[in-house]
């Protein structure tokens, strides 16, 4: 089974709303493209609960303008492609603000892989990052509204279980 969404955007309206799927997913492959403005900050929620802090019970794959000076002193797990607050992406391969980026997120049980702009930047599992074993193994997928505009296109969910 595969689903495809052509184009979506978060307006940047103040607040913490997010655009979420109607059904929950456990194991999946998610591919998408995103574009953020200068200073942009957003994310993709995975295995998130319907209510509460999506990135706490579920997880967030960070989207960020890594090139912006205001983000130069962040923790390693706060940069684009990271499992936010858990596992750091490396290398940082985000394109400059205003350009389209590709993101692929693969989830199998407690194993997570992130491919950013065609480069594998993260492979993590609960053996190396025990916090991953404490998170949900099924939940909603969502596009974060982080009070800043962001565009998404060509979303594809496959390998669904």
Q: How would you characterize this protein structure?
A:
This protein has one helix and ten strands. It has one helix at 54-57; strands at residues 3-10, 18-20, 28-35, 41-48, 59-64, 101-108, 111-116, 119-124, 140-144, 150-158. The protein is globular. The chain has 161 residues and is mostly beta strands. The chain has a six-stranded antiparallel β-sheet, with no helix packed on it. The protein has a four-stranded antiparallel β-sheet with strand order 2-9-4-5. It is 2% helix and 42% strand.
Strand segment count: 10
- What amount of the residues lies in strands? 35-45%
Main sheet attributes: strand count, strand direction, barrel closure: 6 strands, antiparallel
Mean pLDDT: 90
What is the global morphology?
A: globular
Distance between the termini: 9 Å
Gyration radius over CA: 14 Å
Q: In sequence order, what are the helices and strands, one letter per element? A: EEEEHEEEEEE
Low-confidence stretches: 1-6
Total number of helices: 1
Briefly note the structural class of the backbone: mainly beta
Name the helicity range.
under 10%
With strands numbered from the N-terminus, the spatial order across the biggest sheet is: 1-10-3-6-7-8
